Amino acid sequence: MRYTYFKAFKPLFFIVSALVFTGNVASAQTQAATSAAAPVTGVQTFIDKFFKEYDKQGTARAVIDIFKSNKQMDSTRLTGIIVKIDSMRSVIGKYLGKDLIMQRKASNSLVLYSYLLKHEGQPARMTFMFYKPKNEWEIYRLYFDVDVDGELAESSRVTGKP
Do 63 and 142 contact (CB within 8 A), yes or no? Predict the structure, then answer.
């Protein structure tokens, strides 16, 4: 009699076990996706300060201040970055704000943030790459370009050929 009782509940036991297991896996995946999209502590402070200075005090101040964290950057390269950004800013108009395009985390020591910059004349893109060789984050690379619309249009092509 006991054997029959267990035999009747055996399929139910496996179904409940499967539901509990898949629920835990889904929960773990959701937590992993959420933590990957969470801002990296310290990096967001650099970015917020950069954009505040970019808006209020200009490109030179923003670029020089963010690169203070990187001891490898020389003044010639800094000047080149500042000149490139300022020459484009003079064409695309006043800075109006920013939107986060994407955030990528390659590891616990290398992250990338890409922002859409809203200027009066056209959008631009600012991409920050941060590296943490020891205990502190530092700016590793800073990219600025105005080909956001061309790249977006290219990504919408079905075949990838013009």
Answer: yes
Task: Give strand pairing partners of 130.
Answer: 111, 139
Nearest Cα neighbor of 127 from 161, 151, 108 is 151
For tokens 């020891």, what's the residue? 134
Given a contact cutoff of 8 angstroms between Cβ atoms, the answer to whether 69 and 131 are in contact is no
Which one-letter amino acid corresponds to residue 162? P
Rg (the chain; Cα; Å)? 24
Query: Tens digits of per-residue pLDDT, 61-109?
Result: 999 999 998 988 888 889 999 999 999 999 999 999 999 999 999 999 9
In whole angstroms, what is the distance from residue 82 CA to residue 84 CA?
6
DSSP assignment string, the chain: -HHHHHHHHHHHHHHHHHHHHHHHHHHHHHHHHHHHHSPPTTHHHHHHHHHHHHHHT-HHHHHHHHGGG-TT--HHHHHHHHHHHHHHHHHH--EEEEEEEEEEEEETTEEEEEEEEEESS-EEEEEEEEE-SSSS-EEEEEEEES-HHHHHHHHT-SSS--
pLDDT (average), residues 132-136: 92
